[in-house]
Each structure stands twice: as C-alpha cells, then as structure tokens.
Amino acid sequence: MNTGMNTTSAGNRAEDKACQFLSSKGYKVLQRNWRTKLCEIDIIATKDKEVFFVEVKYRNQSAQGRGLDYITTKKQKQMKFAAQLWVHEFKWLEDYSLAAIEISGEELNVTAFEEVIL
C-alpha cells in the first residue's frame, strides 16, 4: 500500500516525533543520525548527566508487528558498537545507555519507549 510517503520521509518524520517526545520528557537531543562508515545512531540525547543512544523504530501498520520486536540481539550489538565508538570519539566519561522508541501509524504515535534495552 502506497501512502504517498517514501521510507526516508517516514523515517525522518518518525525521528522528528521521537525528538519531540524526548524533549517533552526532559531529554536534550544532542545529535540526530550520527554516522561513521561502520554504523549509525538515530538520536543521541542526554538527561541527568547520562547519554542515551536511541533507536527509532517506525511501523505504519500493526500488521508489520511491533517496532521494538525488530531490535534483535544482532541489532543490540550494532547499537552497542556504535555507542562505544561515539563514547570514545567524544571522550564521554559519564554513564550511557541504549534506548528505543517505537512510533506507530500514520499519526506517528509513540507506542513504546524503552529507556534501557541492554
């Protein structure tokens, strides 16, 4: 089914919504789509001297399953690798966690937020 929105556009809108959600919960968004040749992090945010590396999972339809279900062990390892690269590059000495936000439907509802997934 074509909703008139390509995957990149949908992903960007979902990340916008995730950033709004995080800001409303007291997080400060530092970076979006931080990339290296080896990895990418959707959102990097801080709260209470801790950095959160946030994976955004968007599903337009519930038939696709829950977005958080797609954070497999392999994906968690990729996220941890990316987070460790960022921590090293930016010489972060405080705590950090991997987190995930699930955005669902054309209305872009936040349907789940896992502050610590690993």
Describe this protein's structure.
With 118 residues, this protein is α+β, with helices and mostly antiparallel strands. The chain has a single domain (7-114), classed as Trna Endonuclease, Chain: A, domain 1 (3-Layer(aba) Sandwich), CATH 3.40.1350. The chain is built from 2 helices and 5 strands, in the order αβββαββ. Strands 1-2-3-4-5 form a 5-stranded mixed β-sheet. The longest helix is centred in the N-terminal third of the chain and has 18 residues, at 7-24.
Q: Which key phrases capture this entry?
A:
5 strands, Trna Endonuclease, Chain: A, domain 1, 118 residues, alpha+beta, 5-stranded mixed sheet
Write down the domain tally: 1
Gyration radius, to the nearest Å?
Answer: 14 Å
What strand order characterises the main sheet?
1-2-3-4-5
The span between the termini is: 34 Å
Helix and strand composition category:
alpha+beta
How can the largest sheet be summarized?
A: 5 strands, mixed
Query: What general outline do the C-alpha atoms trace?
Result: globular
Overall pLDDT confidence: 89
List the uncertain runs. none
What is the annotated CATH architecture?
3-Layer(aba) Sandwich
How many individual helices?
A: 2
How many DSSP E strands?
Answer: 5
How helical, in percent, are the residues? 25-40%
CATH topology: Trna Endonuclease, Chain: A, domain 1
Kindly provide the name of the CATH class: Alpha Beta
The topology string of helices and strands comes to HEEEHEE
In terms of DSSP E residues, the strand content is: 25-35%
